[in-house]
Structures are given as C-alpha cells and as structure tokens.
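User: My instructor asked us to take a sequence, write out its structure as tokens, and then describe one feature of it. I'm not sure where to start. Here is the sequence I was given:
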Amino acid sequence: MGVMLQAFYWDCPAREGVAFDWWSRVERELPALSAQGFTALWLPPVSKGMSSTGMGYDPYDYYDLGEFDQKGSVATWFGTRQALDALMTTARAHGFQLYADLVLNHCSGADAQEVNPITGELRWTKFLPASGRFPRDWNSFHPSDYESWDDGAFAGFPDLCHRNPAVFTEVMAYVKWLVEEVGFDGFRYDFVKGYGEEGRGVGMITAIQEFRYRRVGGTHHKPFGVVEYWDEQDVGAIERYIDGVNFWNDAPVGAFDFPLRHLLKRLCDDDGYSLRDLARADTVLARQPARAVTFVENHDIIREGPIVRDKMLAYAYILTHQGYPCVFWEDYFTFQLARPGTPNGIAALVDIHERLARGGTDVLHVDDSLYVMQRRGLEGTGGLILVLNGSREAWRGVRVETAFPAMRLDAIAYGSDLDAGTPEAKHTDARGGGDFWAPPRGYAVYAIGT
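Assistant: Let's start with the prediction itself. The structure tokens for your sequence are:
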C-alpha cells in the first residue's frame, strides 16, 4: 500500500527557519524521499487561517492558498500558492500521492460579529473572505435554523453546520476544487468527532468520498481518505465510525490507529511492558488491517505525550506489519531517525516495507520480553522475520518454525541504543526452523537472499 510521510509538524516553518516557505523546504526533499520508498505526502491545511502564522487548523478563507493579502500576508504560514503548485508538480513527477488535511468542523477569524437570533448572543460569525468564495453568516454555524448543535465544538470557534444545505453545497464545491483543480488525491479528515457520530458527520464524509471527481481528460478519481477519530481506548468506537462512513461507499476511508499507538508508546517507554499485550491487542490493525493507518507520532500527539526513548521499536513494528504506515517528519529529519545508508534507521525500514512486507502476518513466538513475527510473502516474493526484544539485560532469541525452509536469512535492519552489535545471518532447516535474535531494547528484521 505504500508509506505515507506526514510532511510537517507543529510550527515547523519557524522551527526550521523557513517562515512562509515550508512548501519549498518539502519540495527539496522529494527526490531522496521517493528514492527511499515513500509513496504519499500528508500536507498541512493549505487554506489561510485566522492568522498568517497559524498552522491552518483555524480556517478563514478556504480558497486562499497563499494568493490574497489578508490576515497579515499574502502567503500562508507554509508559502504562496505558486510554491504549493511547484511542490505538487514535483511530487507528482516523483510518483507521490498528495493528501489534503481537511478542517471542516469549525472556522475562525470572522470579519464581523452578528446576533444569533436563536440564542440572542453576539458572535463572530460573519465571514467575507477575499477570495469571494464560501462566505458565511450566523446560519452557517450552530445553532442555526437547521440544527441546534452537533457533538463537538473546538476551542470556542464557530462550529460549521453541515446540515445547512448551503454549507453542505459549499463544502462539496471546495473538495471538488481541491481534487480537480488543485490536484490532491485524497484527504485526512481532522477532528471527525466534532462532526457528530450519527448521520451528520458520517454523511458529510461519505458524500465527499463518493463524489465522482473528474480529472483532466475526464478520468474518474476515487480519493483516499483517513479519519482522525482520536480514541486510544475504544477501538470499537473507531470501527463503528468508519463502518458507518463506508456503508455503501466504494471509496472507503481508513482510520489512524490511536489504540495501537498507545500500546507502542508503552512498548518504547515502559521497561515492564509485556509484549504479550502487543500480540493480543485490540486495535484497528487487528480488526481491519486494510483500513488501519498506523503511526508513531503526529503533530498533536507528540505535544500531548511523546515517546521519550527506544522509538525505533515502534517504527520497526509499523513498517513490517500490515496496515498503511505513516512516518512523522520530525522523527525522520529533526530527530535524525532516518539514518539513510545504514541498517539502523527509519529509512532502511521504509525500504523493507516496500520490498518485503507482503503477505499474511503470523506471530511465531511471544513472551513478556520477546516478540517474533513473520510476513509470509506473496506469490513467491517478499517476506520477513521481525524480532522485538523488550529486555534491557541481554540479547534474546528463540527457535521458531518459519515459512522459509532451507534458506539463508540475513539481518537487513536492526538497532538498539544499548548494543551496536550486528545479528548473525540464519540458515533455516528443511521445515523452516531457525533461531532468531535481537539486541537488548532493540529489533532485528531478517529477510531472504539479501
């Protein structure tokens, strides 16, 4: 399915010294990222928000991608429309899919206050964007003539009423424009809990996914979609949400696997974590692997509760298992976990994912501190063995029976902050049996004929 890169993190233009020019920063990395095996980019919200130095999660003018002099600048915090177009052109030339971050729950930065006649309150709900497109007034937000409230407001911002036919029509026009004219291939749906969990939010997303977009030449395009339903404990709630969206939907959405990320944080940060829990975890990946978008960090969760050590254990997991893995820019570049040209970083695992992580998944052995998994390969190609060692004391290994009889399997990716040793190559017997090891608080990936 490929590997997605979240191509931003919180306040990245300022932190990397490229204010109003993030798009160019990303564009420069595209040839190397493509060569490494990345296949898709999740970009931050492209529309101008209430501030020219905001991250876009406070949308003001949906159609201002860095073209209109408003909210303090022409450019968005990430750059001009011209720079965005250049990034997207280069990305397409290197085979990347491009996903837009859709913020459709709320707006901010209104131009004037209005009295809401339902509540009598004076509120900032009059939007007169310079683009002239998708103007809004009090009836565009909750409470309106169409609906009192839905399930979630955000930060006190005016909460869009999707049930208002005018708002629904404008949202559909906007996403059509993003696909057909701007050139996006799919969407990350921000804060879907705020849409309402029954027909309101589900219906909005289903309509966006089901719309018959037409690219240049009349080609029909089905968008990719992934929802941010943030719940680390109740995987059933996430599953019910995506099942609702995907009912009678031929462009189904996936979901970020927050329950899995919760377990991966414990794996990395907690010496006492039992890997048995990882093997029996109830996650989106366990229930619907084809719909699971797996991740280690993102722009929000890293500020709420970051993984503080042994993070490569988590990347070794998501880049060898099923699901659609998403790598975080700050981990790859800022924290220098890519380590290209070595077997010890994310770059090697991305390459392994694209070449070898195929076929079914079997857990061959698990105890409190050792986890051994295989991908069986598909149609005679690919396949791998992953070993995770949660112990700090020593190398650990075990003999298992694999799907690879009478073969040599080399350790092609491995790492530990406690031991820089290289795992030995293994030769399986006629039944596929062999012993596979990993360093303390480390991992090793073995594959055939490399």
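For the description part of your assignment, you could build on this observation: The chain has 13 helices and 22 strands. Try explaining in your own words what that tells you about the chain.
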